[in-house]
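Supplementary Methods. Inverse-folding protocol.

Structures were first reduced to a discrete structure-token string of length 401. This string, shown here, constituted the complete conditioning input.
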């Protein structure tokens, strides 16, 4: 049986700018990406159905049974059992939300076909990643689930450093090559996962749930509160709470990051700070690409959402509920606006367009610094995102932002 994660078009728009450069299944929440969660859970290869510009091959129908899963859906044990007993031409739903289906004709799998499948109501708890802020809101629970998934029947590398203080050591797992030096690891409230060849440096204080992925680093003196994930090859310092950094990004210096999601290949300059709560404690609004307006998040705490390859200079201040697109460069004093389009260059005093060729050059250099090469696919994605985001760069038409 072939297994596919299906990107729902409206959900892709709701998850912008994070899904400008990736499919939904490649979003990291908890320790793993959604696609990785399903692959391990089902012990099978999991493919992606999404927009063609992201370089995923269209699935072919061969008459065999195929399991189609909503790409926003994260697995859990009860849900997995429900999928196992699902029969051909049945779909698993919760109310009006499509969760999964078993079919034999991929070519005809569209909204109309989904409507004709027999509905099976799923009564259990589900975790859907449908908005950017869902990633940090659900991150703590997802770390716990992924921790169990990754460490089942496995033994952690021994923590040998005599100057590191640990609390609830049975809830701490180190992969091969992980190093911890003179740090405090407090896993009383949730697990701490330290990936392959990852390093936690002197004086760092970390509370679980927490995940540091392969080759990631937590710098000296960092203060990391719970429910945070730092993806592969990230470097993080300062103070962080309940935030997800997808991977290959740097927040290496002092400054506060809270209730935020940072994409890949980003860099936050020294003493960058995010506000994650309003002074009047009111509900925070955030930009919605499906409505081209700000919408209520239902949250009192919400900081920064930043798309891939974006950067900000030293002492940058982000207000509550700020959305930064792909390949932006932000600098200067004061608070920039709460929504900054992709390929923007500037700050409080105004923006110009980050030229596409210059953006590609910078991205190529940044990736080579972490042993990755800019590819033809990367090039195509940048060009597509540049075109799709053009209407938000109003200054290109000589209008004031």
């Amino acid at each position: 049986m072939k297994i596919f994660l299906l990107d729902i078009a409206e959900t892709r728009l709701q998850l912008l700018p994070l899904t400008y450069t990736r499919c939904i299944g490649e979003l990291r929440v908890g320790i793993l990406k959604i696609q990785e969660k399903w692959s391990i859970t089902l012990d099978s290869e999991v493919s992606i159905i999404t927009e063609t510009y992201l370089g995923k091959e269209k699935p072919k129908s061969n008459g065999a049974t195929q399991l189609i899963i909503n790409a926003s859906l994260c697995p859990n044990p009860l849900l997995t059992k429900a999928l196992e007993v699902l029969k051909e031409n049945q779909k698993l739903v919760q109310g009006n939300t499509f969760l999964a289906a078993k079919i034999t004709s991929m070519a005809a799998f569209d909204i109309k076909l989904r409507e004709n499948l027999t509905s099976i109501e799923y009564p259990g708890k589900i975790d859907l990643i449908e908005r950017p802020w869902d990633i940090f809101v659900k991150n703590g629970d997802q770390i716990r689930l992924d921790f169990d998934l990754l460490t089942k029947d496995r033994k952690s590398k021994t923590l040998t450093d005599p100057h590191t203080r640990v609390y609830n050591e049975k809830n701490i797992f180190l992969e091969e090559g992980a190093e911890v030096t003179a740090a405090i690891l407090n896993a009383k409230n949730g697990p701490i996962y330290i990936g392959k060849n990852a390093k936690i440096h002197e004086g760092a204080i970390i509370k679980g749930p927490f995940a540091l992925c392969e080759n990631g680093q937590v710098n000296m003196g960092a203060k990391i509160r719970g429910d945070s994930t730092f993806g592969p090859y990230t470097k993080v310092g300062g103070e962080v709470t309940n935030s997800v950094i997808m991977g290959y990004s740097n927040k290496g210096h002092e400054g506060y990051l809270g209730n935020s999601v940072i994409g890949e290949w980003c860099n936050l300059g020294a003493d960058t700070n995010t506000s994650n709560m309003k002074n009047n404690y009111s509900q925070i609004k955030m930009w919605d690409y499906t409505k081209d307006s700000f919408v209520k998040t239902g949250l009192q705490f919400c900081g920064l959402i930043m798309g891939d390859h974006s950067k900000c200079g030293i002492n940058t201040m982000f207000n509550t509920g700020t959305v930064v697109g792909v390949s932006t460069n932000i600098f200067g004093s004061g608070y920039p606006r709460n929504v900054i389009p992709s390929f923007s260059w500037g700050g409080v005093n105004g923006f110009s367009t980050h030229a596409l060729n210059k953006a590609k050059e910078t991205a190529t250099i940044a990736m080579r610094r972490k042993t990755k090469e800019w590819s033809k696919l990367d090039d195509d994605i940048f060009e597509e995102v540049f075109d799709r985001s053009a209407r938000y760069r109003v200054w290109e038409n000589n209008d004031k932002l």
